[in-house]
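Collaboration report, partner site 2.

Our partner group contributed sequences for two proteins of shared interest, and the home lab folded both. The records are reproduced in the order in which they were received, starting with the first partner submission.
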Amino acid sequence: MSKVFVGIDVSKDFSTAQGVDKNGKKLFYLRFAMNAGGFSELLKAMMKCNENITEITAAMESTGCYHINLFSFLSSEGISCVVVNPLLITNFARLSLRKTKTDKKDAQTIAQFLLANEKSLSAIAFSQNTQDIKDLSRERESLTVLISGMKNDIKRLLQGTFPELEKFCSPYGETMLHFLRQFPSARLVRVAKQRDIAKALICPDEKRKRVTVSVDDIIAAANTSVASSGAAKELILSEKISTLLYLQEKNERITDVLIETCESLRIEELDIIRSIDGVNDITGSTFLAEIGDIKNSELNFQAKVI
């Protein structure tokens, strides 16, 4: 059982910590910098209360990114440290008699919340594994938005450099993207040699053409094209295609790691979700990332209805 409870109100540059004992008596208050010196100062303040680090428990709210380094530092030093959903702290403070909002009061509220919920820490805490899965899911979501925007830009530019191409096939397939990166306009197709066009229709590391459109069709379309854009748009289109290919490759890596992480940490829940018709690995992993731990989700719901 813990004998020292430390609530930490985390901010970007400076944070505050309030320590209390098992009776709620204040032991120390500290404002410290979010750097190596500040972390060491906090650890010393904790150790003065109790040299047995196994009897010290610290809690902080999930702040997106600012709490991560402090959490890792305290954990590496052997301090039992938990990250709590801010909603639970907010509702706990709402039910308390303290209404003044200051850094010191916030740290004290977190310490009192920690003391009151000592027996259910495993349920209220965010594990690092849960956070890792959520981070991967959010990164994949961000990449998906960027990819969608990049495709819209490419479609807009293609209307000026080679609008007829979309009549034959989608420009977003891997083969056509590699082709358009080399020949981003009808003008460049018209001045190119037929063998170079045919070669461009084969993806790197591929031995044969993977699209149904023929070289003759592309050349014929280029010869009758109404495209009006010049070299500037050709360069911009080619660079945007390079960016899109990079984003898609990065998205595939993030997606693979997300699924692998879910399979290694939450395989039972993932298998249940994947058993639903229409739910694949990506959908299931993303869903688990957003809801977090089931026990934690139940507590969050309870906090919302208080």
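Second partner submission, folded after the first:
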Amino acid sequence: MNGCLGIASFSFYPELENFAKQNGVAILKQKGDVMEIEAGNLKVY
């Protein structure tokens, strides 16, 4: 079974966010009143 990973938070350390992006993990973070999803580099595990 394959899947994708993602992490969500109200705030991220820049190092953690960069590490996640480099390793194909989606980022969900709060931007004002909405959640922003960064999933351009998703990797199937």
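Feedback sent to the partner group on the second submission included the following. The chain has one domain: 6-38. The mean pLDDT is 88.
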